[in-house]
Amino acid sequence: MSDPRETQYDKLPAGRRAGELTLRELLRFGWRQITSMRTALVLLLLLALAAVPGSIVPQEGVDALAASRWREDHPRLAPVYEWLGLFDVYGSVWFSAIYLLLMISLVGCIVPRTLVYWRAMRAQPPRAPRNLSRLPDATSYRTDESADEVLARARTVLGRRHRVRKADEGAADGAVSAERGYLREAGNLVFHLSVVVVLVGFAIGGLFGYRGGVILVTGDGFGNTLTSYDDFVPGSLFSPDQLDPFSFTVEDFEVDWLLSGRAAGQARGFSADVRYRETRDAEEERYDLRVNHPLTIGDTDIFLIGHGYAPVVTIRDGEGEIAYNGPTIFLPQDQSLFSFGVIKAPSAEPQEIGLEGVLYPTFGMTEDGDPVNLLGKAVDPLLSVLVHAGDLGMDEGASQSVYVLDKGDTEQVEDEDGKPLRLDMRPGDTVELPDGLGSVTFEGLEDWQRIQISQTPGKLIALGGVVMALVGLLGSLFIRPRRVWVRARQDGDGTLVEVAALDRSGGGDVAPVLEDLVAALRGDERGNQPPETKRDGTS
Amino acid sequence: MTDAAWETLSNQAVAVCGVVYFLALISHLVQWTALRKLPVGAEAQAPVAVGAGAPSVVEDTSAHEPDVERRTALFGRLGLLLTVIATAVHLVALVGRGMAADPNRVPWGNMYEFTLSGTFVVSLGYLLLNRRFGLAWMAPIVVGFVVVVLMVDVVWLYDPVAPLSEALYSPWLVIHVVSAVIATGAFTLGGICSVLYLVKERRPARTTGYLARVPEPAALDRISYRMHAFGFPVWTFAVLITGPIWAHQAWSAYWSWDPKEVWAFITWVVYAAYLHARATAGWKGRNAAMLALLGLATLWFNFIGINFFSTTSQHSYAAPAVVEVGQAGVETPASAGGELGQPLGR
């Protein structure tokens, strides 16, 4: 890491004050700063810090409902938060700025390092230091063999797992240099590179992907076109041609309700029997769509992520005509599928009719006489709705939620006592409305499923990137680069062999390596004096 | 055995192992109290030797304080033995928990079970690495930590055995959670080393008492680094590979900035910064230890804190048995209906 404080004041040309930089110098200074290790570290910690608010403030993209609720509860703070981008932290300018800077810093770091590494890969291991015994881990022994024999053996022994320096021509060096563990730096580079790969994969998913949801009553078909979706969140570069031309129908839906034991009332084993065609003309195929088992058609994944009940209701108006007939989706309010919904009959005469109320899949009464839902399974369903009559506001052209009744121009229908009229109906029940408004029939219940459909291009790139990161990480953490030298010198008493090793990762213990090497070099030769080992290393 | 019997066995085993851990803690405390006034001198190796059960070293030094030495050795061995027994009973508690569920499963369905597993891994990791790294000095801290966390677990986090929610029925439960638990254990042990490093570094000159017998700061730093270097790839695997794969299958998006994901990511980034600082900036010791502890704080906050602070997390298994499917149905269409109601509306 270069220290920016070491600017060389004394070398400044005349006429410029200390600290004054030309544009070029400024750019170079900036580049150095941004690619310095310290900056990378600060950016990493900043990224961690910047991710925090996203887990505290509800996020638009994660839970839009919670975000809008939060806005309503905090009318003063909301605009400030909005301005700061706190409802969409991970797409905000400042969050993007941090990770883009980090990417620049990363690229600025890996490119030069790759070049250095490339040169190191092609270079020979360095020559043996003059005095091997000065290295922290060194040993020596004497032998009767000639220096050439020892060095030749050293070459074979080390050659198995090291890169060995070619014999220097003319240099009366009498030493073998070997190096291993080049892959540590490779692992390091791969790890850094993989971060870029993951980001690219993530970005592709965000730009070209989409996520859409649809609620289907059992038996309804779905054709994959934009208009078929209830909600649709496309990436910014999404084009409708990406929609695969498949269609499917949920033929049957089953839930396994636990009726006994501690988890009684809990549901499990959701299973939707789906028939689908990959294209308009393709063969019909079947798939058992379950949680954790999405259906994949082409590039598109189809998930089962929710379910509930849709009461089938027929509304006849005052003239006896059927003003509304069919299943209406009611939204679960809790895990027991106690649901809320509205039913609208805008074509009813003489007055438009709107029903608003709740559905108890299994109705019960507490001891105090309060209605309660006992179970998510529809054992004894009860539909309990209030009746509104008047203008439902559906002719004005403005879009209206199907889950909300516009009561601005309606009046609540009352019974003979002047109390709000509440219809409590079991399947098959028909109730006549007062004042000649008509009648309401609760025919029965149907299931609905919420299906999520998404394309996430680039997911395999991201996955590949993370796997690459893991492999690189393992290499950079656990491969130990090491240099080993063997020198043999013949003198009057025979040959003095010096062996030394240097761990370049820091913290590695090379003493056992030396012992093994000496043992291998001496081979079956016995009877020599034991090696005089010198070890003053701390490791 | 019936499921109920297994569950009773598990609960009893938790109680028993808690008591045995506590006895082990007392035993280690007696061991270290005995050494309180004895300066580190000839018996500098004693604590390690006690841990490794090598009485020969003790005999060498018995000339100084025969009583103290004998007591130290005895209680040190007793403490280790009790820890081994407690860990074995702990395992029984885990197995019982898994067998009590119907169908049988890995005991990682809720926070109580995850904490039970996490503490087991910490304790087992300590026992396995005890010899290799000479961790006898760590005994009181590890055992104390396990006792406290187990107590918190039983008192505040207890949940009766219940079937898993639908999304949890997946082989990824085993792979994802086991790697997260192992990484959590390794980071915790590494964090303990870092705390001791910081404490020891402030009072380097102590010659008596517990601190004097903790390894040199440099050694602590090295052990801590090794734990983190082991934990980080495992954490990467858990959080960035298995997590997204499973999330893609169950929730239809491999990364959805769920609060738990966010905090797992934060933990990952902090530990990445720790390794980065050590590898390149040459940060050792104090600064590195601080970073490691910051990472540990985010790790445990993510594990326990986020379940209580955030209700939106899909990982909130602290809430009573969330049925993912039912829940997802409540929220999304309502918001969708508000904005894009037309297709269904008219």
TrEMBL record, chain B:
Principal place of residence: membrane
Pfam families for this protein: Cytochrom_C_asm
Entry membrane topology: Multi-pass membrane protein
Annotated ranges, domain Cytochrome c assembly protein: 108-310
Protein localization: Membrane
First and last residue of the signal peptide: none
Alphabetical UniProt keywords: Cytochrome c-type biogenesis, Membrane, Transmembrane, Transmembrane helix
Highest taxon of source: Bacteria
InterPro entries listed in its UniProt record: Cyt_c_assembly (IPR002541), Cyt_c_biogenesis_CcsA (IPR017562), Cyt_c_biogenesis_CcsA/CcmC (IPR045062)
Transmembrane regions: 12-30, 78-99, 111-129, 136-158, 173-199, 229-247, 262-281, 288-309
NCBIfam families for this protein: cytochr_II_ccsB
Protein name: C-type cytochrome biogenesis protein CcsB
Protein species of origin: Nocardioides deserti
Name of the gene encoding the protein in the UniProt record: ccsB
